[in-house]
Task: structure prediction
Amino acid sequence: MNETVSWLLDSDPAIRWQTLADLTDEMPEVVAAERGRVASEGWGAALLSLQSHDGRWDGGTYRPGWADESKPFFDAWTATHFTLDLLRRFGLDPESDASRRALSLVRENVRWDANGARYFEGETEPCINGTALAIGAYFGESVDGIVDILLDGQLSDGGWNCWADYGATVSSFHTTICALEGLLGWERAGGSAAAVREARQRAEEYLLARGLFRSRRSGTVIDPRFTLLSFPTYWYYDVLRGLEYFRSTGAPADRRCDEAIEMVAAKRDASGRWPLENVHQGPTHLEMEGPEGFASRWNTLRASRVLRWAGAE
Result:
């Protein structure tokens, strides 16, 4: 076992079980036992303990109950939506008792502020709906209605944009990756529809045609933040998140991912670790690692399995 893997295993169950599964090819029963600890130890248990009796975290669905609504662009990551997404990314076992209790409270009680719909019926913005779809599909909830909403909102260039209702006609990488993760999650959970496969293929082409981070017209980097590795990503896009999506499809790496793969590989330091380069500011329940510039177990795990998938180790 190399030093990087040992360092990853000296961590929280959320990282340990994924390291065992994706980097060491450990026996399934060993992986499952470690995954089972997410509900009862460390970060997963900490988040589960913060859920209130009404199913919400921090008194809100997308934003916490204390958020100042006069500041619409203020981000806080402590409400129900982003907490559920972290539990999904931690790999909380959907069949565990803790998961069933938490999700039943969400299903029965939590509603969106924007439209009053139940959480798993979806909201109005595609970036929010994409993540809600990924969460619902992962935890075995009925989310077919969100699929229909996303399909109706796909733009002509293949992606999505949360500002489409306000006149935007060009897609956003941030919104598109959220929608793609949700649609893929729905398919992996057993959903099947030709329209969904076609929508995903169009959106994948939108990202691939731009090399995952460049303007199709000028070839320049669309946003410098796309080249910086973050975790949690929340609603933000970066090249590692894009590569993780393509890895999760099970398809071989497209040659148009090569530059992004090389960029990620070049960020590995002499000890075989990757840094946390971009912390998305706002209140959180957990400070898992950091500060910026220091080695990140999450980014090391994610980058390592991307390079393994791409044959670029």
